[in-house]
Amino acid sequence: MKSLTHRGPDAQGEYERDGLFLRHFRLAIIGAEATAHQPMLALNGKVQLVFNGEIYNYKELAAWMGCPDLADQGDTRVLVEFLSTYGIGHIERLNGMFAFAAYFEDTGELYLVRDRFGVKPLYYLHHRGGMYFASEIKSLRSIQPCSLNYQKVIRYLDTATYPEGANTFYEDIIQLEAGTWIRYQNGKTEIRRWYDLAAEISSLKDVTLTVPEYEALLEDAIRLRLRSDVPISLHYSAGTDSTALLLKTKEVWGWDFPLTTFTMAFEDPDVDESGMAEIYCKRIGVNNHKVFLTPEEVPNLALELHGFQDEPYGGVPTIAYYRMNQVERQLGYLVSIEGQGGDEALGGYLYHVYLAIYDLHLSRSDPDLLRLMLQIHNTDLETAITAAERLIAAGFQSHTDMTNIRGVNSLPKEKFMDWLSTIQLYDVLVNKIPRTLRFNDRASMACGREVRFPLLDYRVLTYGIAFDHQVKYAGGNPKAPLREIIRRHLLGVYDAPKRSVVTPQTKWLKDELKPWALERIDVLRSSGFLPQHFLNESDSFYRDPAPTNSFPIWQLINLSFFFDFQ
């Protein structure tokens, strides 16, 4: 269990009784050490709790319980008293990122609970008549050797997708799905979903939704996520989401509020966009730290990070993110807020745009907006319809920029309210958000840090997805509610087209990192784990004088580490 000390370097505690063993590693963010150590016993002796994450609305929760002074002891104390009083039946009142285990002493029930969107991880394993659980896979593998799920590895290579739902890259290790709980008692388990995003969106179908109300929800989400007893920074890319988040934070807390931003940077001017972040930060009046990643650092950092990720992860962007978290920890910033979720909630990706165009065509509800979107995105209706129908037929298996529309082992998706909301649900629950949260959690917690996501507040996310197309794409560009925040302060920036995160991965793998890449692929080739046609991807990549997609090469490099760790 020492393998989890990086997640909680500040304190350790344990509890053992009648076959139950709990151990906790604490990262101290809220609450004095003397009153916030875990495992924590409820004051009435009914519940033992171990808890990873934050309950952002712990002060409001304590007030609702009629015990506002509980908040003085931190969010863990509020949570354990809430559970001891109300049980598991009211957890929809929690606003936070959390994975916790609660043992009810009087009934012998153990509940494992995970937050709505799976910001915090939780895995479990059935072994020798018992159940073991942990925040990371490595701890469970130390209990029982676990076989790789070879089918999941092949699907990862075929479709560039990661295991979905409760699945992992291992046969016996199960991920507790987001928005679910599991009850374990007398060797029997019951699993139940306690949060349903689709139902929440549907409940807003006949409600008048306004941009001012959306901004009010976002303001409250930021206010809650700035609760901390340690310094907070903001991850800044100069994109729409992080710029709107930065400006809204300054609006909420005042322009004199000290907020430091951190930006991933590269020395290669062809791909480095940190200069734009520096310019915007000067205009807004906040400090900006650039954290550079060089190709020479990548091999060691890639191997190091795999030891924390446990499963295949994103390439150079994730390594650069890890390096940024290392620097933030060194400078004393233990918490960051980040703009993850804006694209998914407000239709920011190009494939969202094409499906929105397709919806407008089918509904014939707003021909003026349809024409404007076609014009801004430099396409015609026939091309957009054809691309949208291919994307739907491929089960949304595509890059977000509509390149590489696949269809391997995929089925067309069943339509939700419209095609745009259907792919948004897919991105939040299955595709984009789950894998990004995993990458970011492991990279930040490897450094003893946590990252918070105001745009993934369940109220903000639900409201955003439920907006009509006319609100999301007001003016023809996506994410209009966030652009409106920017427009108030940075004229000429609010209507800029979406920029994907740019990294030098393709260039580096083709040039500076080529010897390392080929060495790692040769290791994989000699292992005999994979069919030859996957390994031939490297030959095609290095023969192409101007390759544009380096992800298949990264997959092979990443899997070489993955198999080494077995």
UniProtKB/TrEMBL annotation:
It comes from Methylomonas methanica (strain DSM 25384 / MC09). It is an enzyme of class 6 (ligase). It catalyses: L-aspartate + L-glutamine + ATP + H2O = L-asparagine + L-glutamate + AMP + diphosphate + H(+). GO terms for cellular component: cytosol. L-glutamine binds at residue 75. Pathway: Amino-acid biosynthesis; L-asparagine biosynthesis; L-asparagine from L-aspartate (L-Gln route): step 1/1. Belongs to the asparagine synthetase family. This is asparagine synthase (glutamine-hydrolyzing).
